[in-house]
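Annotated sample (chain length 103).
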Amino acid sequence: AYMWASVALGVIFLFCQGYEYHHAYSELNLKLSSGVYGSTFFMLTGFHGFHVFLGTLMLLFITLRLQRGHFTADRHFGFEGASWYWHFVDVVWLCLYILVYWL
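Output written by the structure step:
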């Protein structure tokens, strides 16, 4: 259940980022050509969003493999690798959030 929740939260994050991009572009007139802030904003959040997309795909496939019993106590590198990747993406988001939205 927690794995499916993580996949769902990844998808929700990506939809929220898509909404934020739409709002920034159409209502705030923030574009890649808007100067340093616009290009930096879209570059940082875009690369992060791409990595969230990859992590969500990894979690989806790992969850499906978990349900099929592909992992054991001794053979679970795929699960552990995806877990480390997802946690790293989380930590990067905390840093980006502070950098982009607070400073």
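Annotation: The chain has one domain: 2-102.
Annotation: The mean pLDDT is 94.
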